[in-house]
Write a structure and sequence with these properties.
Transglutaminase-like domain-containing protein, 6% strand, 59% helix, alpha+beta, SirB1_N
Length: 277
């Protein structure tokens, strides 16, 4: 059973995700609070204050897209030392905004959140760009767009650099559709997907995988198959009745399009119930 404070965080996360203009920083901090029980309201406020402080260090209106990109990267990358290394992919803290602000290390997408939130507070035309396999930050309209790579300390990217990042991740050429701004909920879902992937590679961390799935299910748009993943996790964690009920509910959804798969899921639900005997 969830504790009252946990239920309140979940309610707040769902409410913010469904608001007209979701607050990216707040959503990321609420994700962090799921992972870190010590992150209370004061801790979240402190993280927001740090973002405000960093924004206050930026020069006033440094110019167009390139001026903003250079100014933010000089501050966060060069002066403050935000960036990443391959080892950061092995740490859950690299996906938690409050820890990234503290350690100044993280995954590309969380470092990008820092760039976005600091620059946005200072009035920059900034947004996330969800390149396949490597999240970056964009400044300016499409005709003057400047991309930076926060994981590489805020290095300004040429068109060839972006093409190499995409080719390295997918083997495919860069498509212009990859350069459109990512909205806050896309960013949060990608962060949760990263956390799920981190936890799924560590069988002892089904607790992390479960809350990441459950937060994903609170987003307005999510894959229906997440319900089956949650059901499997419940069974793995010993909640056979809860997992079986979740499987049966998912099978009802699947039955309309794939009766064979639905029956296979129902068999798994029966097997989960049988484990109680």
């Amino acid at each position: 059973m969830r504790r009252p404070i946990e239920s309140e965080r979940r309610r707040r996360f769902a409410e913010e995700a469904r608001s007209e203009r979701p607050d990216l920083a707040l959503l990321c901090l609420l994700v962090g609070a799921e992972a870190d029980a010590s992150l209370d309201e004061a801790g979240m406020d402190a993280a927001e204050i740090e973002l405000d402080r960093l924004a206050g260090l930026l020069p006033f209106r440094p110019g167009g897209a390139r001026g903003w990109a250079s100014a933010v990267s000089e501050l966060l990358g060069s002066r403050c030392g935000f960036g990443g290394t391959p080892g950061d992919y092995q740490r859950l803290e690299s996906s938690l905004l409050h820890e990234v602000l503290r350690r100044r290390r993280g995954l590309p997408i969380l470092l990008s959140v820092v760039w976005i939130e600091v620059a946005r507070r200072a009035g920059a035309p900034v947004y996330g760009v969800a390149l396949p396999g490597h999240f970056v930050v964009g400044f300016g309209a499409r005709d003057e767009q400047v991309l930076v790579d926060p994981f590489d300390g805020g290095r300004l990217l040429t068109g060839a650099d972006a093409e190499l990042l995409v080719a390295g991740a997918t083997g495919e050429p860069l498509d212009p559709s990859m350069l459109v701004p990512a909205d806050p909920l896309e960013i949060v879902l990608r962060i949760l997907n990263n956390i799920r992937a981190w936890a799924s590679a560590r069988p002892e961390r089904t607790d992390v995988q479960l809350w990441a799935v459950e937060l994903s299910l609170l987003l307005p748009s999510h894959a229906a198959r997440l319900r089956f993943e949650r059901a499997q996790l419940l069974v793995q964690r010993g909640d056979f009745l809860g997992g079986a009920a979740e499987m049966e509910a998912y099978a009802d959804v699947v039955a309309a399009v794939d009766p064979t798969s639905a029956e296979a899921i129902r068999r798994r639900a029966r097997a989960a119930r049988a484990r109680l005997n």
